[in-house]
Design brief:
The chain is α+β, with helices and mostly antiparallel strands. The protein has helices spanning about 1-20, 25-30, 35, 40-55, 90-100, 110-120, 150-155, 230-240, 255-260, 285-290, 300-315, and strands at about 25, 65, 70-75, 160-165, 175-185, 190-195, 200-205, 210-215, 245-250, 265-270, 275-280, 295-300. A hairpin with a 2-residue loop joins strand 10 and strand 11 (about 275-280). The longest helix is centred in the N-terminal third of the chain and has 17 residues, at about 1-20.
Length: about 325
């Protein structure tokens, strides 16, 4: 459905841009196959008005012209829809090249490369290589999860999805029906924020825990999409980033480097163990469970109990 609509919008845009005189609704309907397949005049009129509004929202300037006999026609003049010349200095070109190099995998890699080629054809400064490395660090945003691309398209098209999701404390995945809002990368992992229809609440999902295929579902969104989706803030809260307390844990030597990076104090115990003091906030128990036998919680008692409960739940399957 999304492909069919995109093709219809493209055909309408080409008709309006390619004509030298205003085209009536009748002429446009006869020129575009999708409009010919409309069941009746009312269906066509609704489809045409929606498409016209969508093209205008995308930035196409469509003029409405009334002829002497009162017939209304439409056209998009090329001079009104032509972008100004693109001028980039060396620093701007370098910034675009750096942004394009971030995407090395998934669907966006080809799009980023193609965009830079078009910019070069449009007048990128001579002697500037947008792909040249401009620093000691070379950015990468890894995208290994098969769920990334279908979820990215679902967020763009405002299309509900369903998938099987395995929580950190569960041995088996559970089905989820989600209205996806936004994807964001945080500390090397991709997360999806959206509305969980079954639970009737906002949820954040880690893509690496999605199993199987992401399936599209019909129907409109049942919850309003917030103006600002705080994926990082939510995940950070779960990971204890907003903690106001401390926890004392025992950690195997040469293990659990993410925990060591968060530690406010480290003491060597010998015999292959270290003692760490780390920030304690909501969700820390779920994170500690991921380190399995490499971590032992010493205090506080409620954190130790939560971790033990989660480990027992995993053991029971």
């Amino acid at each position: 459905m999304a492909i069919a609509k995109a093709e219809r919008l493209m055909n309408l845009a080409l008709c309006l841009l390619g004509t030298r005189r205003p085209l009536s609704k009748r002429e446009l309907r006869e020129s575009i196959e999708a409009y010919l397949e409309a069941g009746n005049d009312d269906s066509f009129n609704r489809m045409f008005e929606r498409d016209k509004d969508d093209l205008r929202e995308l930035g196409l300037v469509i003029e409405t012209v009334e002829s002497i006999d009162g017939e209304v026609g439409y056209l998009a003049r090329r001079d009104s829809n032509r972008l100004p010349p693109i001028t980039l200095d060396a620093e701007e070109a370098a910034a675009l090249g750096l942004a394009a190099k971030v995407w090395q995998q998934a669907r966006l890699a080809g799009a980023a490369s193609g965009a830079l080629q078009k910019l070069r054809a449009a007048g990128l400064p001579e002697g500037v290589d947008p792909y040249e490395t401009h620093g000691a660090l070379e950015p990468r945003i890894p995208v290994h999860e098969a769920a990334f691309e279908p979820l990215m398209l679902a967020c763009r098209d405002r299309r509900a999805v369903s998938f099987d999701y395995r929580k950190a404390t569960a041995a088996r995945p559970e089905p989820r029906n989600v209205e996806p809002w936004a994807l964001e990368c945080w500390r090397g992992h991709w997360y999806l924020a959206g509305w969980d229809r079954d639970r009737g609440a906002e949820r954040v999902f880690r893509l690496s825990r999605i199993t199987g295929k992401v399936r599209s579902r019909g129907g409109r969104f049942t919850a309003a999409v917030p103006d600002v989706v705080t994926v990082r803030e939510t995940v950070a809260g779960w990971a204890g980033e907003t903690a106001d307390r401390s926890a004392l844990i025992r950690l195997r030597t040469d293990a659990g480097y993410p925990l060591r990076a968060k530690a406010t104090a480290v003491r060597e115990l010998g015999n292959g163990w270290d003692e760490l003091e780390i920030p304690y906030g909501h969700g820390l128990d779920a994170w500690l469970v991921e380190f399995g036998p490499d971590v032992v919680v010493l205090e506080p008692a409620e954190l130790r109990a939560d971790v033990v409960d989660r480990l027992r739940a995993v053991a029971k399957g």
